[in-house]
Write a structure and sequence with these properties.
The structure holds two protein chains of two kinds. In chain A, 23% of the residues lie in helices and 35% in strands. By secondary structure, chain A is of the alpha+beta class. Chain A has one domain: OB fold (Dihydrolipoamide Acetyltransferase, E2P) (Beta Barrel), CATH 2.40.50.100. A six-stranded antiparallel β-sheet of chain A has the order 1-2-3-9-8-5. Chain A starts with 7 loop residues before the first strand and ends with a helix. By secondary structure, chain B is an alpha+beta fold. Chain B has a six-stranded mixed β-sheet with strand order 10-11-12-9-3-13. Chain B has a six-stranded antiparallel β-barrel with strand order 14-17-16-15-18-19. The chains are: A alpha+beta, B alpha+beta.
Chain lengths: 127, 348
């Protein structure tokens, strides 16, 4: 299981990574592994405002559909267009080419409440 | 791993269900399908008994032939689907694991004196070898015995010193076959097939339940409990071709009524946009009314479609008809498409 040390995490396995003034959101390596082959990704439209913990969209694997939740509040700035044609990018490179969307955060303080890499690793160990 | 009809079976192996599916379509997949049941019928009167028991014509089969059939109840509903082999002095019938006990009880209750009904499931192992290079791999382990057998025929071959009944059939839409042999040789044969694939440069890997399902689904083959079941008749499911109305068989009268009146619904394939349709999801009419439910649905890796099978009114069954499937509360476009999505290689 790979854990990107530059990311913060939710216990529901989304990651958040700062990039300029925006937050890149995806799912962790642990999550993509558990879901299995991902065959469909649908995220909310850019421009939509979401509160922390609200659904951002859905990822469907061969086995099941899973909701994805906002790690921080903000406005969706962009969704990854590559996933429409190749949802398996989430399996292949979840922290890189398989990112889900970018948020413009509305409350910078929320970042500090997310799990850091060490805390997230501990959390995964409990499962 | 998942429990399946009393067996623990892998949903997928480490390479993942999608890659397993594609690998079977381009080279060779191995299927550990020991869960399938095998029933042997023999003795005086066995031929006529089998003919009256199953929907398909069987008395014209020659020794070594294999044929698909249905097992129906008196109402013409589908208790199971079968692969029937006519062997020397016996009938070898492959049944679904989940129906093994009920099929056996059904058959035994009807077998006349003199017909022996032998459940061979426990002492028989079954491995399927499927894919465009399957025959090449099987020839390599059998001294070239397999390519001599035509599609839908069976013969005895020897693999690694073990006598194997080989049937050139399958459940993927690819060429290949199914191997029946004493359970004690299972591990040895499994490893031999993998090793021969490696040595011969024939990409060969095990396939789990998820890809087994998507392979059969794309190729238009039914899975009992989904496209056929004890609440579905073969006419509405598109299996009239597996029913021989020139002979008597259990369920025939009921089916004649269905044929005369026309089926009240038909099985269709749906090409869905905007999500993965799954079993149980509602199908909606153009007016938005719920008109049924998907009996199966999934992502199809070869044709790269999200597709479902569903029963709809005959007037909505024409390819091109625009319906919808409700996915997490949202209607998503679903167009009726011709089945199968993937034409089996041996039918091209």
């Amino acid at each position: 299981m790979k854990i990107d040390p530059n990311c913060r995490y939710r216990s529901s396995h989304e990651y958040a990574r700062k990039d300029g003034g925006e937050i890149v959101v995806g799912i962790s390596d642990h999550a993509q592994e558990a879901l299995g082959d991902i065959v469909f990704v649908e995220m909310a439209e850019p421009g939509k405002k979401v509160a922390q913990g609200e659904p951002l969209g859905v990822i469907e694997s061969v086995k099941a559909a899973s909701d994805i939740y906002a790690p921080v509040s903000g406005t969706i700035a962009a969704v990854n267009p590559a996933l429409q044609g190749d949802p398996a990018l989430v399996n292949k490179d979840c922290y890189g080419a398989g990112w889900l969307l970018r948020l413009s955060p509305s409350d910078p303080a929320e970042w500090d409440g997310l799990l850091d890499a060490a805390a997230y690793e501990k959390e995964c160990g409990k499962e | 791993m998942a429990p399946f009809a009393g067996y623990d079976m892998p949903i997928s192996y480490p390479r993942g269900a999608v890659e397993e599916h594609l690998l079977c379509r381009r080279s060779v997949g191995l299927f550990d399908i020991d869960h399938m049941g095998q029933v042997e019928l023999r003795g005086a009167g066995a031929d006529e008994f089998v003919s009256g028991l199953v929907s398909a014509r069987v008395l014209d089969m020659s020794e070594g032939e294999a044929r698909y059939s249905l097992l129906l109840d008196e109402k013409g509903l589908v208790l199971d689907d079968l692969f029937i082999y006519r062997l020397r002095g016996r009938w070898w019938i492959v049944v679904n694991a989940s129906n093994r006990a009920s099929d056996l009880a059904w058959i035994r209750a009807r077998a006349p004196e003199g017909v022996i009904v032998d459940d061979r499931s426990d002492d028989t192992y079954m491995i399927a070898v499927q894919g465009p290079r399957a025959i090449e791999l099987l020839d390599a382990v059998s001294g070239g015995a397999v390519s001599a057998l035509r599609r839908f025929t069976a013969g005895e071959i020897v693999v690694g010193g073990t006598k194997v009944l080989f049937g050139r059939t399958g459940y993927t839409g690819e060429d290949g076959g199914e191997l029946f042999f004493p359970a004690v040789a299972a591990l040895e044969l499994w490893e031999l097939l993998l090793a021969e694939g490696e040595a011969g440069g024939i990409e060969t890997a095990p396939i789990g339940l998820a890809a087994r399902d998507s392979l059969r689904f794309e190729a238009g083959m039914p899975l009992h409990g989904h496209e056929i079941s004890p609440s579905i008749n073969p006419i509405e499911a598109g299996f009239k071709w597996a029913c021989d109305f020139a002979k008597d068989f259990v369920g025939r009268k009921a089916l004649e009524d269905v044929v005369a009146a026309g089926p009240s619904r038909r099985l269709v394939g749906l090409d869905v946009t905007g999500g993965v349709p799954r079993e149980g999801f509602e199908v909606l009419s153009p007016a938005g009314e719920a008109i049924g439910a998907c009996v199966a649905g999934m992502y199809c890796p070869t044709v790269k479609k999200y597709a479902a099978n569903a029963f709809v009114l005959p007037e909505l069954a024409k390819p091109g008809t625009a319906l919808a499937v409700s996915i997490r509360g949202k209607p998503r476009d679903a167009v009726v498409v011709k089945r199968p999505l993937y034409l089996p290689s041996y039918r091209r």
